[in-house]
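thoughts on both lines:
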Amino acid sequence: QVQVVESGGGSVQAGGSLRLSCEVSGYTAKVNVVAWFRQAPGKEREGVAAIDLEDGLTYYGDSVKGRFTIYRDNAKNPVYLGMHTLKPEDTAMYYCAAGLGWYDVHRADKYNYWGRGTQVSVSS
């Protein structure tokens, strides 16, 4: 079994920064891709960023390119999402997901393991 736990959400004013953390534990042989998704009320879940834990490849959604960075330290855990120049439209519940294989990394249905989410609120 694989467990995914997010942390680091909070409230910030527009233009500010936050860093989210994602810890993946358990049978991690089933995981080599970690991704962040977000979902605002009334909207579909959106792929924000993903990272290949073995090769370091990264993916970013168009709405966050140049503002968000997904990364990890030398170890595979945790995976961080650095968020800068935050906008009110970034307000959402942010979820970490873990899966296997660098393909369709923007699709939520690719991932078998999900955390419970952490709320990010950006005020204008």
